[in-house]
Amino acid sequence: MKNINCIKGTFDILPETSEIWREVESAVHDFMYVHGFGEIRTPAFEKTELFVRGIGDTTDIVNKEMYTWTDTDKAGTQLTLKPELTAPVVRSYIQHNLAGKNPIHRLYYIDSLFRRERPQKGRQRQFNQFGVEAIGSPFPEQDAEVISMAYQFFVSMGIEDLTVKINTIGSQDARQEYLKLLKEKLQPHAEELCETCQDRLHRNPLRLFDCKNPNCQALLDQYAPMISDNVSDEDSEHFETVLNLLDQLSIPYIHDKKMVRGLDYYTRTTFEITSTSLGAQDALCGGGRYDKLVETLGGKPTPAVGFAAGFERLLIALSSIKESEPEGINVYIVLLGEKAIPKGMVIADELRRTKGISVLVETLRRSMKAQMREANRSKAQYVIIIGEQEVESDLAQVKNMESGEQFDVALDQLAEYFSVDEDHHH
Ligand code: HAM
User: Which is nearest to 115 in space by CA: 101, 129, 103?
Assistant: First the structure.
């Protein structure tokens, strides 16, 4: 029979790797705590409509990357595994009337997302993000705080070669004028564009900037007016203040005039942070302001800004700078003979429960030699040996694996022995 493997673009995380995941997750929680952000968790699937309306129906995500199915309810509701979290967070914000409870909400998440993309290094079909959404403030200091958080988190993890790319795509009012201009300028060269871009030119010309085709990019360089040169004075002022605050926070950035981001909800500030250690998929995170999304999804007009960072990409960047050494355990209990088994299990239980130390207990009935080898492999600090003889005499042999010292301890004294501090252990 053929083995059943996990789906292309999805991965198992085995114990050797899950340790670094937990480390980074706990760093995220600590980081968010000192910034006063509270964790939000939303369901794995939502109505398809949420993403169509939220992300935009001309985006790659909505057009070709969503895992969508028809529910078996009477209405045949269309459901989708979440491909991103900004729309669900805003849905939740509206649903629970958070606006009525406080004028500002600072939320963060760690979660799994699903996009049917072509899998490659740093790009999966199920992937994980952590991110923040600050909902309520229209002011540039909120943009600056969010960008600074993304940047400082990566710095705190020891990632170097960071580039912050930032742009403004203006408010949606100014956008229509610009899109008209962009269309006008590129229409004469429409036939030189790739097929997708020809379609983009009609349906949503801003998406032209997402194209990876070098020929399309060259045409944009040559003919496209840049959106940040075509925003309102208020938009420009907002952008200047964000940049100014970043300067004061000593965050280096480049103004990347072609960065528009692949989701339709953005207004004004957009940004990405890239790292050279990543290869083709070099974005560690992406985000920006989305002042119209709450309204688009049926809430009262509420400005907001946020970002999300790819967990797997962060781990790729970390793997090039950090060897992760799996942690050892405190005690390995070597058992010899059947009578030793219940004794060993009771002791293991007591040590774990009352002393909170990590204990491995033999369950394979191996030879002494094989069990000692296993204890070494699991980097045990101490080994407790219980054999038939030890059961008879109510004693166990304890071996300090570092010093090699070995001594007898009464079985009913073991818990107490391991509760005293290191130096007491001879
Ligand atoms: P995004 O740019 O689609 O933005 O995703 C953010 C980050 O998630 C990317 O920079 C990348 O690190 C990671 N990522 C995206 N797709 C994949 C994938 N297929 N495999 C691995 N990693 C991936 C958003 O999702 C927005 N919701 C961000 C945001 C929050 N904007 C405002 N608030």
Answer: 129
Which residues partner with 409 through β-bridges? Answer: 396
Q: Enter the DSSP assignment of 132.
A: E
Buried b (16+ CB within 10 A) or exposed e, 298-332: ebeebbbbbbbbbbbbbbbbbeeeeeeeeeeebbb
**Atom 13, ligand 1: residue with shortest CA distance:** 310
Q: Residue 115: CB within 6 Å of ligand 1? A: yes
Whether the predicted pLDDT of 426 surpasses 50: no
Pocket flag, ligand 1, residue 268 (CB < 6 Å):
no
How far apart are the C-alpha atoms of 61 and 160, rounded to whole Å? 30
pLDDT band at 191 (very low <50, low <70, confident <90, very high): very high
**Predicted confidence (pLDDT) per residue in 251-305, tens digit:** 999 999 999 898 999 999 999 999 998 888 899 999 999 999 999 999 999 999 9
Please provide the average confidence, as pLDDT, over all residues in the chain: 94
In a mutational test of the pocket of ligand 1, which residue from 106, 270, 285 has the highest number of ligand atoms less than 8 Å from its CB?
Answer: 285
Q: How far apart (Å, rounded) are the C-alpha atoms in residues 399 and 406? A: 4
Q: Which two tokens stand for residue 161?
A: 């070669």
Q: Which two tokens stand for residue 100?
A: 């009525």
What value does the mean pLDDT take over residues 203-218?
90
With tokens 């050279």, the residue in question is 276
CB 87 within 8 Å of CB 308: no
**Cα–Cα distance between 326 and 16 in angstroms, integer?**
7
Residues in the chain: 426
Of 93, 140, 144, 88, the residue nearest 113 (C-alpha) = 88
- Classify residue 313 by its DSSP letter: H
Band of residue 175 on the pLDDT scale cut at 50, 70, 90: confident
Query: Measured from the CA of 124, which atom of ligand 1 is nearest?
Result: 20
Q: What local confidence, expressed as pLDDT, does residue 173 receive?
A: 83
